[in-house]
């Protein structure tokens, strides 16, 4: 088990401690009279942070069964330099209570306050870190430990605020002569528990600084401020969540056969989903969108879509639905509640599941407070200003500070309030039952902690969920940086905060696809005559990161990456970040052949692009490409990107010529301007 330790070393100054254990009581005078025998307890002073330094290290803990001694061999390995001490103990029968095992103990071990063992790790021969190995009796079920680097630096599991815990009940045989068939059978038996526990494993493997689940002392303002600062800094760091950790987990789940594909956990679907966004920014204008969309259900099903994302259903100040007011009023500009029910029924009859667009971050109020501020809510959820976060300057909330970024156009909801969470869980469950929604698209999830999302999803038990975590990519002097790890890290951090119960739109991949080929328009002065010149620039090398993997979320956590090239915000009549014109089919050739869950925009489906998009979808389904498919990048050059997926499909985009090599017989399945797809001949 490898822990990737990304932690902040904080120098808080020295705590001034007076009167050690051997100090004598002092006399204290008060009002001129001596009071003797009163012992002054130690005191401390708090100093400001004077230096913050990020460090990235790993600790690997391996547990094996030693057949010779019938004990368990525990091995620690870390690249942390200098002296590293582990405070450790064991537990039995999953009691989660620290115990000190009997002697013999490892070398350089001391008993610490009769509660734990303190062992100095041994420096490696090459000087690159430290290691330790020792034996434990088989009666113990778990091992606890924390790391001590120096007097002021301790490392614990910041993901959940607890000590590190290693299970000792499932270990590999060492020197075993067990029959190989039995070993393989054991692996098969383990897979069911692997599928159920995969997200729990990820949480144990990843120490996320941006997680706020470990913040228990909410009344300690200093501690809260430090954690918020760490969260802000973590958003800029890309070394918290490393791809090898995710890759090892993804590789353990094989979903090649759709007959055995099962959801890893609530909200993640089967792995073979193809998503259609079923509206654009203008869809509300007819007032009958639900009816119009229902007429497209059979066509969308025949094209191969398995999920449709429907627009926000609630009463809203804005006609598009993203400024919700009365959440139980489902008569919107898109149609009536009855028409919505009929729409969901029609899609279900066509074999397509339906996502509701849930806006949980903010809510528009129906009434003003005594100061004339709109922060009093009506309807079935008749909240007062306690439901509004305290640090939103526009709406005078009396709740706690926001756990995310504020959306300044409407009151930001305080999800830390239990009554708010209970009401939202009840509403989501009501929507599932009353309307028949199969899952959610979650709007503006940057605004509140992903742990609350986990709570909502565990209550509503959706089939599929995708969150919109949107922020800017990294640029230097106006040009996009090659390394976008910091950007995708923030998205992965949010997914991890939900405990993996939701996916997220892969904004990183969209942004990088934008830049692989574009035109620069230059103005030239030739003998006092001005002219414009278009210079084409190709940068397909951006589609491979430094480790030869896809550079977006799909390169780190493909099963949670929902890839797309356009939506109602970026395209349609808003056009906030429109995909380069003429490159749409290259974009779809990429996302519809790659791992992740691809999403196709409504305006592109019902356009001249449809025949080729349908062809791409057909290839994906025929070759059983799914969210965890294996990818091998073959070329990532100036004018060419080529990749092999699951060893049965090869694709290329870019103007440079490319043909598959090797003894296999590859057949062209789709071809167009600057894109080509081959299938392996059966």
Summarize the structure.
With 682 residues, the protein is α/β, with parallel strands linked by helices. A hairpin with a 3-residue loop joins strand 7 and strand 8 (116-120). The model is unreliable at 6-46, 172-265 and 521-535 (pLDDT under 50).
Topology:
Elements (H helix, E strand, L loop, with lengths): L1 E9 L17 E3 L2 E3 L16 E15 L4 E8 L6 E7 L17 E4 L3 E5 L1 E2 L6 E7 L5 E9 L2 E3 L8 E4 L4 E3 L5 H26 L15 H14 L8 H9 L23 E3 L11 H6 L2 H7 L3 E3 L27 H13 L3 E6 L8 E2 L5 E3 L41 H17 L4 E4 L7 H11 L3 E4 L7 E2 L2 E2 L4 H13 L5 E3 L1 H9 L1 E10 L2 E10 L22 E3 L20 H8 L5 E4 L1 H4 L4 H13 L8 E6 L4 E5 L3 E5 L12 E7 L2 E6 L2
Parallel strand pairs: 4-14, 15-16, 15-28, 16-17, 17-20, 20-21, 21-24, 24-27, 27-28
Antiparallel strand pairs: 1-4, 2-3, 4-5, 5-10, 6-8, 6-11, 7-8, 9-10, 11-12, 11-13, 18-19, 22-23, 25-26, 29-30, 30-31, 31-33, 32-33
Helix pairs in contact: 7-8, 8-9
Family: Belongs to the glycosyl hydrolase 13 family.
Protein name: Alpha-amylase
Organism: Dichanthelium oligosanthes
- Rough outline: globular
Q: Could you give me the name of the CATH homologous superfamily of the domain at 275-516 and 553-628?
A: Glycosidases
| SSE-based structural type | alpha/beta
Q: Note the beta-strand portion.
A: 15-25%
Instruction: Compute the average pLDDT.
Output: 79
* Individual helix count: 13
Terminal Cα span? 40 Å
User: Any idea of the CATH topology of the domain at 275-516 and 553-628?
Assistant: TIM Barrel
Number of DSSP strand runs: 33
Largest sheet: 8 strands, parallel, barrel
CATH architecture of the domain at 275-516 and 553-628: Alpha-Beta Barrel
- For the record, what CATH class of the domain at 275-516 and 553-628 applies? Alpha Beta
Q: Helix share of residues?
A: 10-25%
Q: Main sheet: which strands, in order across? A: 15-16-17-20-21-24-27-28
Unreliable stretches: 6-46, 172-265, 521-535
Catalytic activity: Endohydrolysis of (1->4)-alpha-D-glucosidic linkages in polysaccharides containing three or more (1->4)-alpha-linked D-glucose units
Protein name: Alpha-amylase
Pfam family, one: Alpha-amyl_C2
Subunit structure: Monomer.
